Amino acid sequence: MAEFAAAASIIALVATGTKLAIATFDFASTIGSAGKELQHIAAEVSDICSVLKQLQVVLSHAHFRPSVEALASVTRIVKQCQEVFGEIDEIVNGLRGSNNEELFPTPDFTNKIKWTFKRSKVLVLRTTLEACKSTLSVMLMTMLLAERVSQGGIREAVSVADEHDAAMCQSLVIAQQCAVERLEQYEDEVEKEEETAKLLPGVTSNNRANVAHRRRSRGRLVRMFTGLSVVTDLPVASQPSIQLPTRSERASIWLDSILAAPDDTSGPHPGRRQKRISSAGTATAPLQLLKKWTDQGGHAEGISEATQVTARLASTAEGMWRDSAFSFSDGKKEAEVVVSNVQRVGTDLISPKTGRVQSIGFHKVLGHDSAIEVAEACVSGHHADDTYDVVLQSMLLETGIASKGNDMTLCIYFGGKARVLRAKDKPMALLAQYEEMEMEPRLVVKQKHNT
């Protein structure tokens, strides 16, 4: 059966990973403080082996049938872990070989270890293990829920245990999404490094290893008097570089798709994960994953009811601003409500530095110290030369506040301080100045108080 084949592959991987973790721990113990980085990565290997072992036990003694998609996901994660373990083993063996002749680690060797484990490629290995571990933890929790359902552990009435299990599954899903996001950042860094390396003349990913051999041919007198080296051989012809993985082949993409809802047929989207890093976006995740990975989704009435209640609460929290009344909590004068049913608009921004999509959620109006913080969309249409009165009246209309201009004032919050603008000031020009100083300014409308 497929589940037994998956369990067998897990057993083999756990044995390999355990040996790798112990060998890495032993090597780290012989090099003093330089072994801290090795201990961290060995701990990641040990943790993921522990989760894999628990998942193997559940699959071997399950009273439910895992879906074909779940077993395929486990097989792919196991294959990914095998590749990462192999690369870690090569790195550790390379470091061990460079220190064979030394009884104690030299400063150069210590710096070499620290530099090695700060490289983007090595950080990708660590975050890949972390993302795989988080994904396996979600699968393990879902399989345990399926086991309870198959044995009649879930009742129709929503119990405290059901709510706790659903909340734990939500927490693991959010943790997995955060780990995948970190992995994507390091993958972007590695891709940029590879693209930069292609621009180096005569040095590509395939022939970069030949540079050390070519530099052995040096001028003797030059080395003696100046310490400089000269490459005397002819330049090597450029060879085709290694093809980088496409975006769909990235580990961050397919690990993210593993947790997608069964009815989610849309392709990978970088902004989709932003919806699943809070309880509002993962309210129905336990039941959806139970249906996707097992045959017990239709029997979990208790979990279904619990997730429906959680989803309703989350939906209420999301829509709290849709029919809100804009008023000030203190002061004798209150703003009148002239606009009802304010709808929120989703917004995605693209970072100019990394090119990654960064979701800023929704335009919103927030109460802050008797003030209304104006969203980015409210001020983006203005120019630096706009006067104080023009900006103020535009913001009052945008937020739906009917009030005389002399009752309100504009302020800029920055670095824990507030600056009250004067009538002759140009708000957008001042806001741009604070942004250039990276003080994270916020333009707000505040009601004047009579003294």
Question: Your description of this structure?
Answer:
This protein is an alpha+beta fold and 451 residues long. It folds into two domains: 2-205 and 241-314, no CATH class; 336-447, Ubiquitin-like (UB roll), CATH 3.10.20. 52% of the residues lie in helices and 8% in strands. It has 14 helices and nine strands. The protein has a five-stranded antiparallel sheet. Strand 4 and strand 5 (371-373) form a beta hairpin. Helix 1 runs parallel beside helix 3 (68-97). Mean pLDDT is 70; it is low at 203-242, 267-273, 313-353 and 355-370. This is C2H2 finger domain transcription factor CON7. It comes from Septoria linicola. Residues 261-281 are annotated as: Disordered. One of its GO terms (biological process) is regulation of DNA-templated transcription.
How are the secondary structure elements laid out?
Blueprint: H1 2-29, H2 36-60, H3 68-97, H4 107-116, H5 120-150, H6 160-198, H7 211-214, H8 220-225, H9 251-258, H10 285-293, H11 301-318, E1 336-337, E2 346-350, E3 357-362, E4 366-367, E5 371-373, H12 376-379, H13 388-399, E6 401-402, E7 408-414, E8 417-420, H14 427-436, E9 442-447
Antiparallel strand pairs: 1-6, 2-3, 4-5, 5-9, 7-8, 7-9
For this entry, what is the oligomeric state of its chains? single chain
Number of strands: 9
C-alpha-based Rg, rounded: 29 Å
Number of helices: 14
- State the secondary-structure class: alpha+beta
Major sheet summary line: 5 strands, antiparallel
How confident overall, as mean pLDDT? 70
- Give the terminus-to-terminus CA distance: 81 Å
Strand order of the largest sheet: 4-5-9-7-8
Spans where pLDDT lies below 50 across 5 or more residues: 203-242, 267-273, 313-353, 355-370
Count of discrete domains: 2
Q: What share of residues are in beta strands?
A: 5-15%
N-to-C order of helices and strands:
HHHHHHHHHHHEEEEEHHEEEHE
State the helical fraction: 40-55%
Outline, from the CA principal axes? extended
InterPro entries: CON7-like
Protein name: C2H2 finger domain transcription factor CON7
